Amino acid sequence: MGFSGAAALAGRAALRAGAGLVRIACPKSVLPIIAAIEPSYTTIPLPEDSLGKISKKAINQILTAVEENDVLAFGPGVGVSGDLQQILYHLLEQQKPLVIDADGLNNLAKLTDWPEKRKANLIITPHPGEMKRLWSGLCRQPLPSDKTEQAGRLAQQTGTTVVLKGAGTVVTDGRKVYINKTGNPGMATAGSGDVLTGCITALLGQGLDCFDAAVLGVYIHGLAGDKAAENKGRISLIATDIIDSLPEALISSH
Predict the structure, then answer these.
(1) Which residues lie below 8 Å from residue 38, measured CB to CB, with a gap of 6+?
(2) Mean pLDDT for all residues in the chain
(3) What DSSP string runs through 34-54?
């Protein structure tokens, strides 16, 4: 409760970025809110704990839904709890593409053995604060000051594709590196990261590998933000403006 918009933003962005079918699995108490925001995705009501977060009782229901879908995203709006960490372990063991963002990363940072558990083709999308938490949970060495080195070393150690967000977002799988040039300071607004999660997940669902989906997702997301800033101004830009500009960004990038 209180973070239903995060899931809705990710779902709407995935639809606009080309996903054919989007399903949002969420605590049953917030489902009516999420469903009312966008009629084009479907919803799955999940059992919740006393604080309204997804309960571990939802694991079997989640795993059934996983089998029926091509790609997964975990994190926007979920909160942090022991039950969610158990759910995340199960998701990491699925042999499917998985994007982890937002509170998904904060839950991941509490699992010190997650690289050994991972079977999923994984993309993680930390901002600098989340990067510090992930690093301290896995690495004994101090965090390097250089963003590209941070992302590269984490990607190599964990076997993942890392999207280190911020000005000049870095995308790397530990071998290839991309530094993004699209985007603007107006995109430092609540929900922008949830939109990026939706974009990357949709591109994975269209058959791109993890590195290419992350690169194109970051580029398109930034380009949509630039087009939104042209129309609305950087100061007034909000996350839904980025989603509304995704069609124009996708057309102009072809």
Answers:
(1) 8, 11, 12, 15
(2) 97
(3) HHHH-TTSEEEEE-B-TTSSB
Question: How far apart, in Å, are the Cα atoms of 245 and each of 87, 163, 227?
Answer: 34, 22, 6
Which residues does residue 25 pair with via DSSP β-bridges, in sequence order? 44
- Inter-residue contact 4 to 194 (CB < 8 Å): no
Q: Could you give the C-alpha distances from 192 to 101, 120, 189, 242, in angstroms and in order?
A: 12, 25, 6, 8
Contacts of 68 (CB under 8 A, 6+ apart): none
Cα separation, 66 vs 202, whole angstroms: 15
Name the pTM for this structure: 0.98
Sign of CA dihedral 222, 207, 9, 245: positive
Q: Minimal CA–CA distance to 72: which of 95, 96, 89?
A: 96
CATH match for 4-253 among 3.40.50.12780, 3.40.1190.20, 3.40.50.300, 3.40.1620.10: 3.40.1190.20
How is the chain split into domains, by residue range?
Answer: 4-253
Say whether pLDDT at 254 is over 80. no
Q: What is the pLDDT of residues 192-224, one digit of tens each?
A: 999 999 999 999 999 999 999 999 999 999 999
CB atoms within 10 A of CB 159: 12
Residues 245, 249: Cα–Cα separation, whole Å:
6
